[in-house]
Amino acid sequence: QVQLVESGGGLVQPGGSLRLSCAASGTIFSINDMGWYRQAPGKQRELVATITRLGRTNYADSVKGRFTISRDNVKNTLYLQMNSLKPDDTAVYYCNAWIVSTQYWGQGTQVTVSS
């Protein structure tokens, strides 16, 4: 069984930074695409950023230039560096990974941007 565990969320002031991590564990031979999604209260879950195994990235327009997604294929870990955070970035952030043909989700980590 595969588990994804996020960490690094918290409360930060507008303009601040946070770094999220997502560690995959279990029987894993290879992880294909990975990504971060977020869901704000009363809104649908939305894509934040994705990254292929070879490092090709894709970002939502709302985070381009502020967030950076990266991964460590040896450690099976995904990262999201978030800079210049805004109150609109407040949400639960979820890690996502495709392993073979199965999609896995983490339990989510809360990010709150407020003064």
Key terms:
115 residues, 11 strands, 0% helix, four-stranded antiparallel sheet, seven-stranded mixed sheet, mainly beta
Structure overview:
The protein is mainly beta and 115 residues long. The chain is 0% helix and 55% strand. It is built from no helices and eleven strands. Strands 2, 4, 5, 6, 9, 10 and 11 form a seven-stranded mixed β-sheet that branches. A four-stranded antiparallel β-sheet has the order 1-3-8-7, with no helix packed on it. A hairpin with a 5-residue loop joins strand 5 and strand 6. It is globular, with a radius of gyration of 13 Å. The mean pLDDT is 96.
Count of alpha and pi helical runs = 0
The CA-CA distance between the termini, in Å, is 40 Å
On the 0-100 scale, what is the average pLDDT?
96
In angstroms, what is the radius of gyration?
13 Å
Strand content: over 45%
What general form does the structure show? Answer: globular
- List low-confidence stretches: none
How can the largest sheet be summarized? 7 strands, mixed
- Percent range of helical residues: under 10%
SS elements, strand count: 11
Q: By helix and strand content, what is the structural category?
A: mainly beta
SSE order: EEEEEEEEEEE
